[in-house]
Design goal:
This protein is 37% helix and 11% strand. The chain has 227 residues and is of the alpha/beta class. Strands 3-2-1-4-5-6 form a six-stranded parallel sheet, sandwiched between helices.
Amino acid sequence: MSGLPDAQPPGFVLGVDIDGVCCDYVGELRHIVAKHKGVPTESLTREVSWGCKEWGIDQEEFDDLHRKAVLEHDLLLNMKPHDGVADTLWRLSDAGVWIRIVTHRLYVNWGHETTASHTVRWLDEMRIPYRDLCFLAEKSSVEVDAMVEDAPHNIERLRAAGKIVIIFEQPFNRYLPGLRARNWAEVEEIVSDLVTQRTGSFPLQLPGLPSGADRLVRRKPESSSEA
């Protein structure tokens, strides 16, 4: 016996993408692109296809603007979280779901340090719980029981690999059939059902734990008073 922990986590493993799933990637990038193009933000539609060609940019320009957004405008620090994402993931984690963050962000040349550090900082500042953080280009190789994803190509590859995918709805993935969530309340409902199907039950929150993503803030040590 080696004494080492098991390689596989116990229970149900939920893979969670970040951009577009945990946060409003298109919304923040839209502001940055508008500044570069010198146009009002409102002139750039939110109803975009993958690559945002509706903004009058091709793939090469999109990649360049994304790189500038990450390295010059702190895109990965400034994106707004989707409503309920942190509280939902805390409840799922409390119920025994293993949260595995899976993202493909290391494609900005010479920007890996910024990308990795800003990713961890954003997750901490948004109080999003997770057990693992994986930077993967080929998400179909990740070990999960289900994956919350918005990118069409990742959805199709994950499915081809036999993974359950919860499509987090975006304009560019509406044509895809299958399990779909418009918000994190719907993600929670779907995951609860999947866990119940897999294990026969869905545990309630662990007793004695305060609820909500702000639990660490609310549980501050009492200050001692001087005599």
